[in-house]
Design goal:
Blueprint: E1 2-6, E2 12-17, E3 19-24, E4 27-32, E5 37-38, E6 45-46, E7 51-55, E8 61-65, E9 74-81, E10 85-87, E11 90-103, E12 108-111, H1 113-122, H2 127-146, H3 153-168
Parallel strand pairs: 1-11
Antiparallel strand pairs: 1-2, 3-4, 4-7, 5-6, 7-8, 8-9, 9-11, 10-11, 11-12
């Protein structure tokens, strides 16, 4: 299956082929194997670990849970997006610049606030979109601060096990 992120207006951002793992009360889970190439826009990178991506239903975000590795700086990377849309085996979301990132030591921060402010002007984000992105970013930040289940590494652990099992076949 394919995950694709665009920028506002449809400009390609990046995407990758992922493995559908299943769904639970938090949303759909996808596997991102080590060596997987994310490309299609100005950002191109390769996954250095096996990771799992949560695509929640009805929320404006996706959350990548990373495995610890010397080349991996963070354990959780939440992209603030439009609510992801499914079309068959493809999921697409508009990346709205804001990211909430948690490091392996538990510290966290909101990234790319400057880019978000710049793109509000250059891409012409509607005020409703800005408000939705800011609200989702605040919600994710509160969930990380409180240790909410949806963004806990323990929540991703069973999906890592499913991914390992699928890879060993």
């Amino acid at each position: 299956m394919r995950a694709r992120y665009t920028k506002w207006g449809g400009k390609r951002h990046h995407g990758a082929d992922l493995v559908y793992l299943g769904a639970d009360e938090h949303g759909d889970w996808l596997g991102d194997p080590v060596g997987n190439q994310w490309s299609g826009g100005p950002k191109s990178f390769m996954s250095v670990t096996d990771n799992v991506l949560l695509v929640p239903r009805g929320r404006g975000m996706t959350a990548m849970f990373y495995s610890e590795h010397p080349e991996q700086a963070f354990e959780l990377y939440v992209d603030i997006t439009t609510p992801p849309a499914w079309d068959g085996d493809r999921v697409t979301a508009v990346d709205l610049d804001l990211d909430v990132i948690r490091r392996f030591d538990g510290s966290w921060y909101v990234d790319d606030e400057d880019e978000f402010a710049e793109h509000q002007v250059s891409y012409g984000y509607p005020s409703e979109l800005v408000a939705a992105a800011e609200a989702e970013c605040a919600r994710v930040s509160a969930e990380i601060r409180s240790g909410a289940t949806v963004l806990a590494m323990e929540t991703a652990a069973p999906w890592r096990a499913v991914f390992r099992t699928l890879q060993s076949r």
